[in-house]
Specification:
heterodimer, A: 272 residues, mainly alpha, MetI-like fold, 0% strand, globular, B: 398 residues, alpha+beta, Rossmann fold, OB fold (Dihydrolipoamide Acetyltransferase, E2P), six-stranded mixed beta sheet, five-stranded antiparallel beta sheet, 10 helices, 29% helix, 32% strand, elongated, ABC transporter permease (chain A)
Chain lengths: 272, 398
């Protein structure tokens, strides 16, 4: 067995300390908000004087938290529909762009991805002005349209990545065996890029769920969204239910991640 | 009168039954008795951007024949294959199968089977699903699919691997699956794209035999694309040697090896010694050539040369010999190197005019160098073996 030198030991210590610091900064806030959500106290204070489920009970009370429930359902609905529509549009766009070698395709690719780079805040303001010029009143459908622009690039990017990894010879083989283009898409292309689409949908859904800038400009009192509602509660009352919402969101994200891993892991195994 | 009528009837019956037999025969003996269909390429020309990839290629592949397109990369052989498959629409020319043009058909309606270079098996499907793919696409029932898959798996001896994924198979096994998948569609034509390039050397011969067997069994007209002359020599009925988009020579493996039409074919197929010389005189079926190294050879050739014309004489290493005694048709050489390669001993010798010459001689067991064979003098005389058929090419027109 090789003896570790002084250099090795120092190296391990420094790297270990840096990693520990990173974990502390990343996970610390999550742990604090979760601990706070179980407090017995009336205020958002850390450390909690005692532990209870009282704020979760309060959060799930259908009468007292009706507005939060509406906002949460709005957020899930907008994120779900925007992700679904975004996925269909992105897959179609990615398919077209990988098939065309012209420079115009590269330009389109860049412009489809541009919402990822452009400041979302500017887009939110621009969208609000644009839609009011057109005379369109704020509604859930308008929110879906607004979110769609911001989150579709996530699906587009991951789909594009998996399409460029797809061996074009497989589709030639499919055609050679007498299959139509659509049959080849359904049985070869789609199953092989499905993990990429799923990963993009996951990112898009999460990003829509906690999008503040677009919702800030495009929602009103009737179409309130969860992050905006949380911010409102924070400003006015310092309601501990905010911590409980954060707890629920963290749990939901964890569950989604595990499901995603199972699904893509499964497809990975299916693809050999 | 009656007798004549009876004879007439009998005759009709005989003719008829022969006709019936002819109709029944193919079904009874299928697939071995499926009729092989000829494939014709007529004046195929294709260019990418500015460069001419295929230049006016005409080729007739007879029914049941395997023709190899042999040439270096960029010679147009792969483009030609992709034109036949329908992946590329040729700029000019016609492709016909059994007399019917197929140029307007999309790839999925050509009924041409392909074994792709890296097999192109569908990675997310099992072996059985891969083989059934074309049948499923065509809308065949599950029973028909299952039956055909079982039959094809048996044909390529892969029955035990039906439920494996392609990644769990070796290269040779993947190729068997690729063959089964193509043959399951009962194609009219089989195209093989560098079929042995990805295989271990030891496995190649086995797969060459296997492909030849299946091609015969299914009476398939086949085109194989390869840059490897050994592969082409091994399984092709005829070889089309290609260079710069054209067919340089079309012939049986023995023809292109023994009687190369051009210096390119000569150099591309097998190894050869190129010796400079000058035509001295013509005789009935050839020429007397004075080599630059001093030897004088009689070379059989049908081509036309003028006395005094500079020429290149090409001799295969295995058609040369090393001797102890000098002679007018022998070149004095010094031995540089001897390599025992399997059953042959390859000697690298150098003539007085500094030409490097390779001589291959059948090796006797225990012998590993020429010194032992020649008695250890180090100087030898290099000449033509009795069976030698040197080829003659014009030096000005390589």
């Amino acid at each position: 067995m090789q003896r570790s030198t002084f250099g090795d030991v120092t190296y391990n210590w420094v790297i270990g300390a840096l990693a520990g610091l990173a974990v502390l900064i990343l996970i610390g806030p999550v742990l604090i908000v979760i601990a706070t959500s179980f407090t017995t106290s009336q205020t958002l204070r850390f450390p909690p004087p005692g532990l209870s489920l009282r704020w979760y009970g309060e959060l799930f009370d259908p009468v007292r938290s009706a507005q939060i429930h509406t906002a949460a359902l709005n957020s899930v609905w907008v994120a779900g529909i925007a992700t679904l529509v975004g996925a269909v549009l992105s897959v179609l766009a990615a398919l077209a762009i990988t098939r065309v070698a012209r420079p115009s395709a590269r330009f389109l690719e860049a412009s489809f991805l541009s919402p990822l780079i452009l400041p979302t805040l500017s887009y939110g303001l621009a969208a609000l002005m644009f839609f009011s010029v057109l005379g369109i009143r704020p509604s859930l459908n308008l929110l879906i349209a607004g979110h769609l622009v911001v989150i579709a690039p996530f699906v587009f990017r991951t789909t594009l990545a998996s399409l460029t990894q797809l061996d074009p010879v497989l589709l030639e083989a499919s055609a050679n065996l007498g299959a139509s283009r659509f049959y080849g898409f359904r049985r070869i292309t789609l199953p092989l890029i499905a993990p990429g689409i799923a990963a993009g949908c996951f990112l898009a859904f999460i990003s829509s769920m906690d999008n503040v800038p677009v919702s800030l400009f495009l929602s009103n009192a009737r179409t309130s969204m969860l992050p905006i509602r949380m911010w409102g509660m924070m400003e006015s009352t310092l309601d501990v239910r905010i911590a409980a919402i954060a707890g629920v969101l963290i749990l939901a994200t964890l569950v989604l991640m595990i499901v995603m891993d199972r699904l893509t892991g499964l497809t990975k195994r299916m693809s050999g | 009168m009656q007798q004549a009528l009876a004879r007439q009837l009998l005759k009709a019956a005989v003719t008829n039954s022969a006709g019936i037999a002819a109709i029944l025969m193919p079904t009874l003996a299928a697939p071995a008795a499926m009729t092989a269909q000829p494939l014709t390429l007529d004046g195929i020309t294709h260019s990418y951007g500015g460069g001419l990839a295929v230049d006016n290629v005409t080729l007739e592949v007879k029914g049941g024949e395997l023709v190899a397109l042999l040439g270096p990369s960029g010679c147009g052989k792969t483009t030609l294959l992709r034109i036949v498959a329908g992946f590329i629409q040729q700029g000019n020319g016609k492709v016909t199968i059994d007399g019917r043009p197929i140029d307007t058909l999309p790839p999925n309606r050509r009924e041409i089977g392909i074994v792709f270079q890296n097999y192109a098996l569908f990675p997310h499907m099992t072996v059985a699903e891969n083989i059934a793919y074309g049948l499923a696409a065509r809308g065949e029932s599950r029973e028909v699919q299952a039956q055909r898959v079982e039959e094809m798996l048996a044909t390529v001896q892969m029955a035990r691997f039906a439920d494996r994924k392609p990644k769990q198979l070796s290269g040779g096994q993947q190729q068997r699956v690729a063959l089964a998948r193509a043959l399951a569609m009962r194609p009219r034509i089989l195209l093989l794209d560098e079929p042995f390039a990805a295989l271990d050397k030891n496995l190649r011969l086995d797969m060459q035999i296997e492909i030849k067997r299946l091609q015969r069994q299914f009476a398939l007209t086949a085109i194989m694309v390869t840059h490897d002359q050994d592969e082409a020599m091994a399984i092709a009925d005829r070889i089309a040697v290609m260079s710069q988009g054209r067919i340089e020579q079309l012939g049986t493996p023995v023809q292109v090896y023994d009687e190369p039409a051009t210096l390119f074919v000569n150099n591309f197929i097998g190894s050869s010694n190129l010796l400079n010389g000058q035509v001295e005189a013509a005789f009935e079926d050839g020429y007397r050539v004075a080599l630059a190294n001093g030897a004088v050879w009689s070379v059989v050739s049908k081509a036309r040369f003028e006395p005094g014309q500079p020429v290149v004489v090409s001799v295969r290493p295995e058609q040369m010999l090393l001797a102890d005694e000098p002679a007018p048709d022998r070149i004095p050489v010094t031995l540089k190197l001897s390599l025992p390669i399997g059953g042959e001993l390859i000697h690298d010798v150098v003539s007085a005019s500094a030409e490097s010459i390779k001589v291959a001689i059948a090796r006797r067991p225990g012998i590993s160098s020429a010194d032992m064979a020649l008695g250890g003098t180090g100087t030898a005389y290099c000449g033509l073996a009795d069976h030698a058929r040197p080829a003659l090419f014009s030096a000005s027109n390589p």
